[in-house]
Design a protein that fits this description.
The longest helix is centred in the last third of the chain and has 21 residues. The protein has 615 residues and is of the alpha/beta class. It has an 8-stranded antiparallel β-sheet with strand order 3-2-4-1-10-9-11-15, covered by helices on one side. It has 21 helices and 27 strands. It folds into 3 domains: 242 residues, Aminohydrolase, N-terminal nucleophile (Ntn) domain (Glutamine Phosphoribosylpyrophosphate, subunit 1, domain 1), CATH 3.60.20; 194 residues, Rossmann fold (3-Layer(aba) Sandwich), CATH 3.40.50; 162 residues, 3-Layer(aba) Sandwich (Rossmann fold). The protein is globular and about 80 Å long. Helix 20 links the parallel strand 26 and strand 27.
């Protein structure tokens, strides 16, 4: 959530920053702003609304000067979304300007103290408090900007990624991070700052990812200096070569990123198992698992921590790990795990799942688990992300950039990684026969083709969406491996269409949700050939007797559910354990088309952020 972009170099800063902010729109935001420094003064424009609104405001202000600038998209935490609370923020003197992602938890006490010293505040934000704290340190101590920022940050509690400009330092930007991602793009006599690499990938493939509690002093024509905020020690910058390319972050002819990413899933799954799934050799090779195989084999239990869609992937993994490897698995919301007193020991493995690798609650859960001696394994999509650095070992999903806020290909590639882990562990423990093991490997290898077949339900999903786009509620039912898919399908509908939906185990319908069913209620039932099929059919009959509308997700060739359901979407037959990879596809398409027909902002649904980097 929120997005930071900065530039210092030989080019005009404004178009680079505006394009960068557009690239970060997927993170979720409610206002946007930009500050440009022409060497003499800082010109600031900001507004509630979209980056396009900011562009119009800049044009009306004729604010297009300078080779140094910072820009921001804000997701409101302190203060309502409006022009005043939008970033950037000036200090009282007007000499300093700041952009900030995160939350300063002790801002109220700092603000009270600064008010006693004569500082006044125009906004309701914690960020304006921080920039004035920096100014106060600078003014009273006679410090240069970098040192003043360092001292100020040692006085705050919370999370931040910041970029600061000082009118007295015309060739410098100071950046720092704690708990919120920040990357520095290194070009030829120019530098870029951003929340991720997408704003500068067309200019450079070289990037420095700041670690927590690091501060960078970025000067034109000089090497960037990085220091530890706590002890002022110098850090040798590690410049990473990025593999991201510009085509991956463009829509490629699709109406929305979400639709593009739904259709990218066959390739994303293939990319995820490439080099790992060696069917001809009967092997799964995953370095993070292989190097720590004894820990997995001897684990007392596996605890999976995640949020949102990643939590649903974790629920699927619970079924898979327990079924194949016979290890007890618990799946926890990271946001709850971190605030209770979980029973974790050195004999446990904690698996942390996150698309972005920056989810604040999941990062906090990792730190708690490590403090209690657990071995922590990360599953994430973004190379160089905080979770990939904080965990003891891990595996990337290789889904490629996921821009749409509603996660799609991240879900299926996470399940792919977790399935390979479970299969490798089952093989090592001897809890799966050689024939079943090989059968699973072959079936997993064919999954991309089966996902392609499932995607052929696109037109039918659109037709069904037209029938139910105006309903106020929907129910999703599944059993076994497909119960988490029901949860995920309901979440997708809620996220992008704003229709209330709930996912339930089908057998739990009689314990409450059945009271909701009438002739106006659509119920999506995942009723594939395997997985308690007869029980699901009974559940459908109970729904039909109460006049509910059935949308059945069935195995190709099914006749029994087809005779009962109002609508049927067929998916290819596969092993029950792998069925979530195909059954989730029509649910993604259904939610997408309902949202499109309702004219919702599919890629940037209201109030949501792609990466939740604050509590």
């Amino acid at each position: 959530m929120c997005g930071i972009v900065g530039y210092i170099g030989h080019r005009a800063a404004q178009p680079i920053i505006l394009k960068g902010l557009q690239r970060l729109e997927y993170r979720g935001y409610d206002s946007a702003g930009i500050a440009l420094f022409d060497g003499a003064r800082i010109r600031l424009s900001k507004t509630k609304g979209k980056v396009s609104d900011l562009q119009e405001k800049i044009n009306s202000d004729h604010n297009n000067v300078g080779n140094i600038g910072i820009g921001h998209t804000r997701w409101a935490t302190h203060g309502v979304p409006n022009d005043t609370n939008a970033h950037p923020h000036y200090s009282n003197s007007g000499d300093l300007v700041i952009i900030h992602n995160g939350i300063i938890e002790n801002y109220a006490s700092i603000k009270k103290e600064l008010s006693k010293r004569g500082y006044t505040f125009q906004s309701d934000t914690d960020t304006e408090v921080l920039v004035n704290l920096i100014e106060d340190v600078q003014k009273n101590g006679g410090f240069k900007l970098g040192k003043a920022v360092q001292i100020a940050l040692n006085q705050v509690v919370g999370a931040y990624a910041i970029a600061v400009i000082d009118i007295k330092k015309p060739n410098e930007i100071v950046a720092a991070r704690l708990g919120s991602p920040l990357a520095i793009g290194v070009g030829e006599n120019e530098y870029f700052i951003a929340s991720d690499a997408s704003p500068f990938i067309e200019y450079t493939n070289d990037a420095i990812y700041l670690e927590d509690e690091e501060l960078a002093i970025i000067r034109l024509h000089k090497e960037t200096k990085i220091r530890k905020i706590k002890d002022d020690s110098l850090v040798s910058p590690y410049i990473q070569q990025l593999k991201l390319n510009i085509d991956q972050i463009e829509k490629g002819g699709y109406a929305h990123f979400m639709l593009k990413e739904i259709f990218e899933q066959p390739q994303a799954i293939k990319d995820t198992y490439r080099g790992r799934l060696l069917v001809n050799q009967g092997l799964i090779k995953m370095a993070g698992v292989e190097d720590n195989l004894e820990k997995f084999i001897n684990a007392q239990k596996i605890t999976i921590v995640a949020c949102g869609t990643s939590w649903h992937a974790g629920l699927v993994a619970e079924y898979i790990f327990e079924d194949l490897a016979r290890i007890p698995v618990e799946v926890e919301y990271a946001s709850e795990f971190r605030y209770r007193n979980p029973v974790i020991s050195a004999k446990d493995i904690v698996v942390a799942i996150s698309q972005s690798g920056e989810t604040a609650d999941t990062l906090a859960a990792i730190k708690l688990a490590k403090a209690q001696g657990a071995f922590v394994f990360g599953v994430c999509n973004v190379v160089g992300s905080s979770i990939s650095r904080e965990t003891d070992a891990g595996a990337y999903t290789h889904a490629g950039p996921e821009i749409g806020v509603a996660s799609t290909k991240a879900f299926t590639t996470q399940i792919t990684v977790l399935t390979m882990m479970a299969l490798r562990l089952a093989k090592a423990k001897g809890t799966i026969s050689n024939s079943d093991y090989k059968r699973h490997l072959v079936e997993l290898e064919t999954t991309p083709t089966k996902v392609e077949q499932a995607l052929k339900s696109d037109a039918l999903s659109k037709q069904i969406a037209a029938v139910y786009k105006d309903v106020p509620n929907a129910l999703y039912l599944g059993r076994g491996f497909n119960f988490p898919v029901a949860l995920e399908g309901a979440l997708k509908l809620k996220e992008i269409s704003y229709i209330h939906a709930e996912g339930y185990p089908a057998a739990e319908m009689k314990h409450g949700p059945i009271a909701l069913i009438d002739e106006h209620m659509p119920i999506v039932v995942i009723a594939t050939k395997y997985g308690h099929y007869e029980k699901i059919v009974s559940n459908i009959q109970e729904i039909k007797s109460r006049k509910g509308k059935i949308i059945g997700i069935v195995t190709k060739g099914d006749t029994e559910v087809k005779a009962l359901a109002d609508h049927v979407i067929e998916v290819p037959e596969t092993l029950e354990l792998l069925s979530p990879l195909v059954t989730t596809i029509p649910l993604q398409l259904l939610s997408y088309y309902i949202a499109v027909l309702l004219e919702k902002n599919v890629d940037q649904p209201r109030n949501l952020a792609k990466s939740v980097t604050v509590e």
